[in-house]
Amino acid sequence: MADQTFQIGTGETYTTIAGWEAASDVSTGFWKGELKDTTAYGGVTIAGVTGTPSISNYVWLSATSGNKHSGKSGTTHARIEAKGAGAVTISDDFTRIDDIEIRLAGSNNSDEAIRITANTNDVLISRCILWTNTTQVDKDGVYTGNWAASYSIDNCIIYGFYRAGLNIQNYSTTSTTQDVNIDYCTIVKCGSSGETESSGINSRTGTGGINNIAVYNTGCFDTASTYDDFGNATESGTTNWSGTNNASSDASLTSRGIATNAQESLTTSDTTQSSGSYAVFQSKTVSSEDYQLLDEAAGNLLIGNAVNRVGSEPDARQDFSLDIVGNTRNTTGPSPDIGASDIFTSGADININATSATHTQTTYNPVISYDVTITPTSAAHTLATFNPSVSYDVGIDATSKALTHTTFNPAVSFDVGITATTVVFTQTTYNPVIDFGADTEIVATSASHTLTTYNPAVSYDLDFTPNSQAQTLTTFNPVVDYTYTFEPNSKTLTQTTYNVIIDYDTEIEATSQALTQTVYNPVVSYDTGIAPDAEGLEYTLVGNRLGYEFNENLTHYGFENNKVHYEFNDEDL
Fold first, then answer.
1. Nearest Cα residue to 1 out of 28, 19, 36
2. Alpha carbon distance 11, 317 (integer Å)
3. Which of 297, 307, 458, 488 measures 20 to 30 Å from 475, CA to CA?
4. What burial class does residue 151 get, using C-beta atoms within 10 Å of its C-beta: 0-12 exposed, 13-18 middle, 19+ buried?
5. Which residues contact 506 (CB under 8 A, 6 or more apart)?
6. Exposed/middle/buried for 297, CB within 10 Å: 0-12, 13-18, 19+?
7. 165 in Cβ contact with 136 (< 8 Å)
């Protein structure tokens, strides 16, 4: 099978979606187009593809990896904006759309962000933002009319449509069936008082019509007054609702018979709620809407109340382990969250604040943010991680504490403060990309910092201020940027590096200080100030080129092409 992927935009073979669609050919695999520009693209009709669509041979419209949205509407990512008619019309089976913002901006009546036409089946819509701020009648997020059709939709945020977020309007008087699978969607503020089919999700069936609607882990909120969030405008046909773990701002889940593990009668908010029954989002402000989850406060009942659906995807191309922006959902520990976004809680807010407390954390392949505070006496923190992307904010601020950290292949950022007596920080890393330096501070007596790294790209910003402190750092094959400040008495810096490109900015400002530096085959730049008396510089050089600058009488010496060059009071020796 030969899948084909094209970037669509400025300077590419296809500069418009319409041009890419007109050439689509799924005879040997999928035909994928990735939007690369941030300028809004015009609407498109996907129809008449060459070849026979199937689960492996289909038209696929997406965004380049660097041009996907961040979970809210904006102008800095891939987006489609339609001003004169509907945005996207789909007439080819198995069409797939993901990771795009689609805005309906036109003033016409009866338009949709996405329209799925008659007898079009197995359409997939994932991780999209569908929205409008216009008020013309009969506007829907996704629309299917009086015909047979089927689609699956997951991890989408839909808001502002004058009639319905999803309108399953099978009002045909003949025997037609529509099958719709809805998972992990957030639908807000759809419908109006003048629209009889106003709902977050609306089902309508005519004589002989059958709608099969399976909905899980989805929230519909703030539908226009007198209308249901989960609406049923059934005439003489049949709607078969199924699903669990949904949420609403009314009691319509009970009315539809899908109230198992439901969160009903929630009030929407965009401020932290420590108690009560709320659906709490980032922002409800008009023109600045962001319907991702705000936080995990106890009053936000969307948190942890979904059911894990990984492995139950209706379409084999779906992935329920990820949320709207590709973050991993809670699937192995706490339950996932209801709606399109998920707050992955592992490692967040670890507080060890009592005497003799010990915290041991082992994680594998997560994306983790740690906020670790160890405050009283004799506490220990041990953390081992494998292949994660990790951010640490660690505070150790009392007596006799130890932080031991081992990481393997992570991208890590540390913000470490060690502020009291006899504190030890030991760090061992293998093949990570590390940023130490978001202020590593050791500021009290007899503190020790030992750091060993292998093959990382490392940035250090170290500040040692009082007496008798020692810094030992061994690195192998890293790209390193060091900023050191040593201020009072009796301090020692020992640095051994191998095959590194290093930039040092070192200040040693007080009595009896020593700098011992051993380097092997690096390209090194030093800017060194040694100000008071009794200073020493000891340097071992192997196969490289160096330059020093001092603020004493010996102002410069260098080693280049087996020759030594000195400058003393601005005169050559």
1. 28
2. 30
3. 488
4. buried
5. 482, 483, 484, 486, 493, 515, 526, 527, 528, 529
6. middle
7. no
Contacts of 337 (CB under 8 A, 6+ apart): 293, 302, 303, 304, 305, 306, 329, 330, 343
CB 243 within 8 A of CB 215: yes
Identify whether the C-beta of residue 61 lies closer than 8 Å to the C-beta of residue 97. yes
Give 10-residue mean pLDDT values along the chain (573 residues). 92 96 97 97 95 98 96 96 88 98 87 96 98 90 96 98 95 89 98 86 92 98 92 88 98 97 98 96 96 94 96 97 92 86 59 46 47 49 52 49 56 52 57 48 53 58 52 61 52 61 56 57 53 42 40 40 39 35
Segment (H or E) for 496: strand 492-498
| Partners of residue 82 on adjacent β-strands | 104
Cβ-contact 573, 566 below 8 angstroms: yes
Q: Where are the domains positioned within the chain?
A: 1-121, 137-344, 350-572
What the block records as the tokens of 257 is 């018979």
**CB-count burial class (<10 Å; 0-12, 13-18, 19+) for 225:** exposed
> Residues 337, 330: contact at Cβ < 8 Å?
yes
Q: What is the pTM of this model?
A: 0.65
Query: What whole-number distance in Å separates Cα of residue 156 and Cα of residue 164?
Result: 14
Q: What are phi and psi of 554, to 5 degrees?
A: -75, 105
- Ranges of beta strands (E only) in 236-366 are 238-242, 247-248, 267-269, 278-283, 290-293, 350-352, 358-364
**DSSP 3-state assignment of 252?**
helix
Separation of alpha carbons 84 and 104, rounded Å: 9
What is the three-class DSSP state of 197? coil
CB-based burial of residue 182 (10 Å sphere; 0-12 exposed, 13-18 middle, 19+ buried)?
A: buried
Tokens of 264: 């009903």
Pairing status of strand 448-454 against strand 470-476: parallel
Neighbours of 489 (CB within 10 A): 15
What would the pLDDT profile of 245-275 be if each residue is shown by its tens digit? 999 999 999 999 999 999 999 999 999 999 9
CA 113 to chain centre: 25
- Helix (H), strand (E) counts: the chain: 2, 49
Which residue stretches of 123-274 are H helix?
252-256
Name residue 457's beta-bridge partners.
Answer: 433, 479
